[in-house]
Amino acid sequence: EVQLVESGGGLVQPGGSLTLSCAASGFALEEYAMTWVRQAPGKALEWVSAINWNGDSTYYAESIQGRFTISRDNDKNTAYLRINSLKTDDTGVYYCARDRSMDYWGTGTLVTVSS
Fold first, then answer.
1. 73-83 as b/e, with b when 16 or more CB fall inside 10 Å?
2. What percentage of the chain reaches a pLDDT higher than 70?
3. Residue 113's closest CA among 8, 10, 6?
4. In angstroms, rounded to a whole number, what is the distance separating the alpha carbons of residues 46 and 5?
5. Is the confidence at residue 65, as pLDDT, over 80?
6. By C-alpha distance, which of 56, 55, 60, 59 is closest to 29?
7. Distance, CA of 24 to CA of 6 (rounded, Å)
8. Per-residue pLDDT at 54 exceeds 80
9. Mean pLDDT score of the chain, rounded to an integer?
């Protein structure tokens, strides 16, 4: 059974940093790209970032360029999203999904940016 479990969210002050993790099981992580998507309260899903199977290629939404870093450790079956200089607009649920096609999703981790 394919499972994706996000963690690392929480309450952070503006300007702070977080690293989100996505633990994968039930499939060979190294065979797939991974994607992060977020959803702010009351807003549509927003594609954030993606990484190819070995981490050599990364992709980011223009709105978060320079503040987010996607990475992966295939040996640990985990993908990551590092978020720096957090803004209140970054508040939302962050999901990881398998592959660029996003055929499987986790249940998300909540990030709240507030002073």
1. ebeebbbbbeb
2. 100
3. 10
4. 19
5. no
6. 55
7. 9
8. yes
9. 96
